[in-house]
Batch of 2 targets.
Target 1
Amino acid sequence: MLKIMNVLFFYLVLITRNCFAISTVGDANIDNVCGIENLENCSHFDIENSNIITNELKRSLESYVPCSDDDDNNCKCYSEVIKNDLKPYQKGITQQMLNNTAKYGTRYKILNHQLFRDKECMFPARCSGIEHFLLNLLPELPDMDMVVNTRDWPQVVTGFRE
């Protein structure tokens, strides 16, 4: 799977490079654009950068070794990463920690098999999706209080403390 992603990334870089070249040319005449099909319009710098990126991506693809087999259902490859990520919470998550992080996401509570959510949700469609799955699991879930990051980027640094 990762190899496929690397190949897609390789082509994305090539496409982006050509789009950038097109978008930076002031002349509307497409014949004057630096691109793979039209290298005579490229500066030495453009060609050198393209070769560096292409060679680096090829080298990356050739040296890629998968972390585990496709049939690694236990995700053994990532178990150490997961353990390290969870180390700050070995002693549990306190109410104070939860309160401090609530402003960085959407807070959900399950109480007596009922689901509650903060009124504010930055992306309502995401909250609806989360609620869809939680509601299906509700009969089996214990009472809990949690904060879910519904944003596009990490909100809390690793090992966040009070």
Note: The beta strands are 106-111, 114-117, 144-148.
Target 2
Amino acid sequence: MGLFIHWWGCGQRFWVRCNRRCGSRS
């Protein structure tokens, strides 16, 4: 499931804010 969230949340430029949150964990 992590990959799915990463695909629609931390993989899109639209979710730049979410990207920062996921990037912290990555």
Note: The helical segments are 2-8, 16-25.
